[in-house]
Amino acid sequence: MPQPLIGRRKVALLAKGVAGRARREIRPPKLGFPYAAPPVPASVEILDDNSNIGANYDTEWARRPSARIARSAIVETILRPWISVIAKPDRQGYDQLRSLDPKQHALFVANHHSHLDTSLLLTSIPLPWRHKLVVAAASDYFFDKRIKATMSALTIGAFPINRHSMGRASADQAAEIVDAGNSLLIFPEGGRSPDGWGQPFKGGAAYLALRCEIPIVPIYLAGTGRIWRKGQRWPKPSTTTVIFGDPIWPAEGDNTRRLNTRIESAVASLGDELATDWWQARKRFHQQGSPSMSGPKASSWRRAWALGDRSRRSRKKPVWPR
Hints:
Layout: H1 5-25, H2 65-86, E1 89-92, E2 107-110, H3 116-122, H4 127-130, E3 133-138, H5 139-142, H6 146-155, E4 158-161, H7 168-179, E5 183-186, H8 204-212, E6 216-222, H9 224-228, E7 240-244, H10 256-275, H11 278-286, H12 300-307
Parallel strand pairs: 1-7, 2-5, 2-6, 3-4, 3-5
Antiparallel strand pairs: 6-7
Helix pairs in contact: 7-8, 8-10, 10-11
């Protein structure tokens, strides 16, 4: 008796399913160790491979000629037009750098209020030093992920350091970079200002200047906190000022603490010059009376009030009675 059509369909589908399962079960054997990772017991937690991120990230490739050419193109064609639109910088004090040999590498030191500071300085430092400039960047922020670390090294020439204290490994790496003929940009405060006032300088820049016997160029930045302060998601266009000061050479008998005090005083004097005038600022500097960039030791509202128009909230101009 002939089998019904519906039965033949069921048999065909069943045979197809069995064949499919058989094909799935017959798989080529996987490659084992050493061609693949060794097996790990189920009770052992697999840790992330952080051997090449953070302070361990190797940035030597970013200082090769091809990477420098790419970075120069990024700075001149992308960063400079963007900075001119969003920051409108007023650059002052270029005449102070005439005493430096253009072939002499230097250590550029500035106060730090914003993520914009690095881009602003990369487009403001003169050409003899700009395209051989390396930026000391926080390893726990710019190098915490591999993609971010690669972009930081390529676009701004960053290398990782510990922002809290410069250990021997970071100091040796920075010294090797300087000895190779590179100039260095460093923010001695170790991080962006949380409230608009400056923070005490750490001694890493002074230590490198003494070890490598290179001049320090103090720089004061104003206005970047209004554009892109800490915690702000998107930048807001405004105006900025960049002031270059007299280069500082390590003197005989200087130690890290003494030279660090001189560097911080020089940057503070540039800020005083912007707030008052050159003569008053220089007189206070030589009398060791330049106003501190750290602001008053008081409550947060008092510090915000003393900050004036540099505070987080923009203030309207006073309306005087007629």
